[in-house]
Specification:
- It contains seven helices and ten strands.
- By secondary structure, it is α/β, with parallel strands linked by helices.
- It has a six-stranded mixed beta sheet with strand order 6-7-8-3-9-10, sandwiched between helices. It has a four-stranded antiparallel beta sheet with strand order 2-1-4-5.
- It is globular, with a radius of gyration of 17 Å.
Length: 228
């Protein structure tokens, strides 16, 4: 069975005052379609760097990233952008919502890239889909509210709906509960678990043992390496 994602000796170094500093080192992992996997470890262990590499937000120094067997790690910038818009949905700790537009318009943001690339999309159908996604995360009564009118948990629900609007194969969530109280955090993990039960592949980066325990499998990192 071909993994949805596979890495081979994946490494990333950063330059700091002219010195090469390794962030991730020689990582080999496989994530299969339909899994819900956590990447766990202490702050600074390289887990967010790994997520950025898997999401093609950054390029590796060495090694490869394979998506359904295709090496995507050497894509050009345009190819990476196109791939992300079609295959990957992102959920970030800071929500990354635009403050001056409504929840509904924030959910529609990922479709902007596709329209710029000339993909014909019906505005009416997109609005229907965005409305449906917000309803599924419990925000049918908040469609036209701006982020500053929403709680942290509600903002993260908008971010989850946004991550789904292009029907991606993979959801990457980087510390999705990091800025939330415990109750809101549990609600967000419950939503991600529900998405996984519906067939979505979900990878959650976390330092929280309770969040990691909610996932079916945990990849543990320390000092830039997978240790378990």
């Amino acid at each position: 069975m071909t993994p949805l994602i596979e890495t081979a000796e994946l490494s990333k170094d950063y330059k700091l005052d002219g010195v090469s500093v390794p962030a991730v080192r020689g990582i080999n992992l496989k994530i299969f379609e339909g899994e819900m996997v956590s990447v766990a470890g202490p702050s600074g262990c390289g887990k967010s760097t790994l997520m950025h590499l898997l999401g093609l937000l950054d390029t590796p120094t060495a090694g490869g990233i394979f998506f359904r067997g295709e090496d995507v790690s050497r894509f050009s910038e345009d190819e990476r952008s196109d791939f992300r818009s079609r295959e990957i949905g992102f959920v970030f700790q800071q929500f990354n919502l635009l403050p001056r537009i409504s929840a509904l318009e924030n959910v529609l943001l990922p479709t902007t890239y596709l329209r710029k690339k000339g993909v014909s999309l019906s505005r009416r159908l997109l609005l229907e889909e965005a409305t449906k996604l917000l309803s599924e995360v419990g925000l049918s009564h908040r469609l036209h509210h701006r982020p500053n009118q929403l709680s942290g948990g509600e903002q993260q629900r908008v971010a989850i709906a946004r991550s789904l609007v292009n029907n991606p194969s993979l959801i990457l969530a980087d510390e999705p509960t990091g800025n939330l109280d415990s109750r809101s955090g549990k609600e967000i993990i419950s939503i991600l678990m529900n998405l996984n039960q519906k067939g979505k592949t979900v990878v959650v980066v976390t330092h929280d043992p309770e969040v990691a325990a909610a996932c079916l499998r945990t990849i543990r990192m320390r000092d830039g390496e997978v240790v378990g």
